[in-house]
Amino acid sequence: MSAYQPSGLARAAYVAASNGLAMGGGPTSAKNPASRGGRDSRYSLAALWSMAAENDIEVDDELTKAQRRLRELKLKISSQSKRNFVLERDVRYLDSRIALLIQNRMAMSEQQQEVASHLEELETGEGYIPDDRRRQLYANLFYLLQSEPRHIAGLARIVSLTEIDTLLQTVMFTIFGNQYEAREEYLLLSMFQNVLSAEFESATDFGSLMRANTPISRMMTTYTRRGPGQTYLKSVLSERLNKMIELKDLDLEINPLKVYEQMIKDIEEATKQPCNLPRGITAEAAAQNSDVQAIIAPRVKTLMDIGSSFLVVIMNSLEQVPYGIRWICKQIRSLTKRKYPEASDSQVCSLIGGFFMLRFVNPAIVTPQAYMIVDGTPQKNPRRTLTLLAKLLQNLANKPSYAKEPYMMSLAPFVEENKPTFNKFLNDLCEVGDFNEALEMEQYIALSKKEIELNITLNEIYSTHGLLMQHMDILCPDEESHLRICLSDLGPAQPTLPRTENKTIQLQLFSRWDQTSHVDSPLAVGADQLTKGDFLYMDTKAIFVQIMRLVPGLAAQRPVSLHKIAEFAATARDATLVRKGLKVRDMLQELEKLGLVDPADGHAFMVEEILKELAHLGDLREKVNIEINSLETVYKTIQDHNDYLRSQLESYKAYLFNVRNQSGISQSKAASKPTAPIRLTHQKLEQDGIIVESNIPENRRANIFFSITSPNPGTYLIALCFKGRDKPILEMDLKLDDLLEKQQMGMQTLDVEYVKLSVPKTLTLLNKSFNK
């Protein structure tokens, strides 16, 4: 057996054991079969083998089939989650554009091509990077980003809010997109550890922590929307929220001014006469009205009862809260105590509650239809009740502030009564183990895998590359850093592609700096580490487990004879069994010669471990089946959410179609006959304040005029022309919603190369000329 070389799994086991992670599973002598693990751990070599069981392509038993089904389901969930994220972004975009059009009080059509580009499906065909060298460099870059999350953490801290959605799509749903792959989840949480540490380090005062709408807060919210978080919210909140939205007539408004105004309406409807109560009074005056007080009092009690019922459900769900959510809570508590050691427990809990309730639970309570938690869309009264409920629970989680909404003070008894219990729940959320050891174990398992694949779109590659190049000097100032070397080799980023050309490619991730020589040379170990005999023992045991999985009846025979099992496999008709039988027969003989197993006692210790491993794998199959059932529910929920988002997009299409019909311009006429152009001189535009700055020489301005046409509703073509010339000096395409967006953002001027135009006055001119 001098030619024996440890398998990939044995090498992984070696690294685990030599780092003190693995306990049990291989003898160092026949008399003392204890492992050399250096510290107590919940992992064993048996667990290590079973974690890798699904990689054994030669065993196709019920466990393998279930694991394959589970793996496929996880990939489908991850892929669907990514599509949903993109759809949500499209819905937000169109929603903002329509809001701008409404604000402009114009019955106008959204520029059709612009809308179409946001309603198209993501291109799913296969794409390619023409230069194979660049493909390899990108594979190296994204391996680095995935395996060293600090780089993405640094980028997340410095990008703008306008850039964060694109980055989030790539990070949450591509680089760490397999939401149920432990290695990717642990690496993603490592990134959060970096992000949160920096957030606390840069905080100027306690009150500013985790309050603002920053790229980091957006990232944390997006994390809660992944599969495990969605599953938790639906399982915990669904029943009660569905009951709430059925109570369509239950009015629990407690804002005195709104109650007062509704009371007047009710009186007038009942009496058919104008009410003599004073109008336009203040909220304080409304709160002093005895009738208003009588209406509000029972509503406050009902709201507190509803709040209590939700609180009980949430606090009883501690064990259902996803590990990642609890781990983030743990980091918030730890970092707060480190940064502000004088902070009280109540203050610390307010930050934990700020994440758990504000970013995670409350959005699902306020808009349960967006989370596919309820069967319908809440109507007016239930919608207001859910908003008040979310405010109540948020006041419980955070330090209450009644300055903006004094009427919420009436619910203060609920907060005072439940605050201690809820703070205990928030602290209990933080009581989870760390993932460092588990991450190490997953990394060792990864050593046995041949490759890591990443399905990624071309635009995700180019936009990530562009952001990294833009911030390279901050992220990697050291010329020798691996990230800077990657970026320098790649050079400038390519511009992103039109949506229809944005193909998906597959990158085989690798690292050119990966040092695995210590893993490939198991003989070069010290006296206090595993020997070659230990590897031989582990591989022999693994092959016996594989044979007994392929022929389940062998495990039922008593006593279990390893020689007979090896002989049975070696003489079987199945080629796979024969190969394994011949190999394991020789390996067992070698172990006997080395004195690592004893044939006199029937190899008792190895037999015992094999039977334990088979029992463990049997239990594992049950767990896998339970997880499959759970994830099938998750997948259906995510698909339902996809249907909901698509229906929203269809609603926008219908809305925009109606806007076009109401604009007074028939579609056929608009398509065949563009609106007549208008011509305005430079002098006229300057006099009217539309041109606010001009780079055109004074002596030429008299011969300059502007021709403006509207080829499609909402789209304008501005041509800068010189008298006597057929072709314009400059042509510029301008979209109405871009102008409206600039106005909303407070941008006063529009740069048209030679001149700067006033945004509000340009809007007025276009409305007057084309949108009567």
TrEMBL record:
What InterPro entries does the record point to? RasGAP_C, RasGAP_dom, Rho_GTPase_activation_prot
Q: Where does the source fall among the domains of life?
A: Eukaryota
Q: Which CDD domains does this UniProt record tie to the protein?
A: RasGAP_GAPA
Pfam families, alphabetized: RasGAP, RasGAP_C
What sequence ranges are listed for the domain Ras-GAP? 183-398
The entry's protein name is RasGAP protein
Q: Identify the species of origin.
A: Polyrhizophydium stewartii
